[in-house]
């Protein structure tokens, strides 16, 4: 897993300003999460805390964020120092996290797509499972591994595209490129098939797995037409997943 978030931390933070992040990504994520009031929550690959802070504001009883990028956690801790929310941030690799608690919810936005082999994916899923209470839920938004490369350019007008330099196969790098305010930056994720994901969730012990297509927030239509969003919805680059322990 090679993406160095220490160097792109600030650009990544800025990419959260793109409209699809709010109107599709966050809307779908929070739809899957449902009511989190009073719940204990572990946010894996929390980055600089973009979602982590929102979970606390939405009433989660306790929130812990984990990321393996020192720079991302430094930015998250700076925000926590400026406006304390009682969030604990830990620098750790999720694959080597061990058990740090027994949470109602483990969440992750774009974590699993950093694994390049099914063994790495299984280690992540086992870590997630181990930190959940029985009956607890894992909720994530992730690269949509069912999107055909033929449609990768269809999302260009939203400030985001994927590209590949070899045919899609297990472990193929997929380059994610963002353009925010005319500034471009890229990083790699890896393709693993939906069957591999299903296998890893089941092998880790999850009882139920649900895949959720991206949803468009009603507010999105106050700014742009349905037609504007249709390519994103027809060729969704991201997907929501919910797993129950
Ligand atoms: C695309 S960013 C998403 C950040 C945040 N979830 C968000 O949506 O704003 C992916 C994050 O995953 C982190 N990451 C990648 N592999 C990781 C691993 N094995 N353990 C912990 N964090 C990891 C990166 O450092 C980066 O902050």
Automatic annotation (TrEMBL):
GO terms for molecular function: methyltransferase activity. Residues 42-136 form the Methyltransferase domain. The keyword Transferase applies. One of its GO terms (biological process) is methylation. Transmembrane segments: none annotated. Keywords: Methyltransferase, Transferase. The keyword Transcription regulation does not apply. InterPro entries: Methyltransf_25, SAM-dependent_MTases_sf. Coiled coil: none annotated. This is Class I SAM-dependent methyltransferase. It comes from Amazonocrinis nigriterrae CENA67. The lineage of its organism: Bacteria, Bacillati, Cyanobacteriota, Cyanophyceae, Nostocales.
């Amino acid at each position: 897993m090679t993406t160095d978030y220490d160097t792109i931390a600030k650009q990544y933070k800025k990419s959260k300003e793109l409209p699809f992040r709010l109107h599709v990504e966050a809307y779908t994520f929070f739809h899957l999460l449902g009511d989190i009031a009073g719940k204990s929550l572990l946010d894996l690959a929390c980055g600089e805390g973009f979602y982590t802070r929102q979970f606390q504001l939405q009433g989660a009883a306790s929130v812990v964020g984990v990321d393996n990028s020192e720079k991302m956690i430094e930015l998250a801790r700076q925000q926590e120092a400026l406006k304390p929310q009682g969030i604990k941030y830990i620098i750790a690799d999720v694959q080597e996290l061990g058990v740090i608690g027994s949470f109602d919810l483990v969440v992750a936005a774009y974590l699993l797509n950093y694994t390049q082999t099914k063994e790495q994916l299984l280690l992540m899923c086992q870590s997630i499972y181990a930190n959940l209470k029985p009956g607890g839920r894992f909720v994530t938004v992730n690269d949509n591994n069912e999107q055909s490369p033929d449609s990768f350019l269809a999302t260009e007008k939203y400030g985001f595209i994927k590209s590949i330099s070899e045919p899609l196969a297990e472990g193929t790098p997929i380059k994610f490129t963002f353009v925010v305010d005319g500034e471009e930056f890229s990083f790699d994720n890896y393709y693993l098939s939906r069957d591999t994901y299903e296998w890893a969730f089941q092998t880790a012990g999850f009882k139920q797995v649900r895949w959720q297509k991206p949803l468009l927030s009603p507010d999105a239509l106050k700014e742009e037409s349905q037609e504007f969003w249709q390519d994103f919805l027809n060729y969704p680059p991201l997907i929501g997943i919910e797993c129950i322990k």
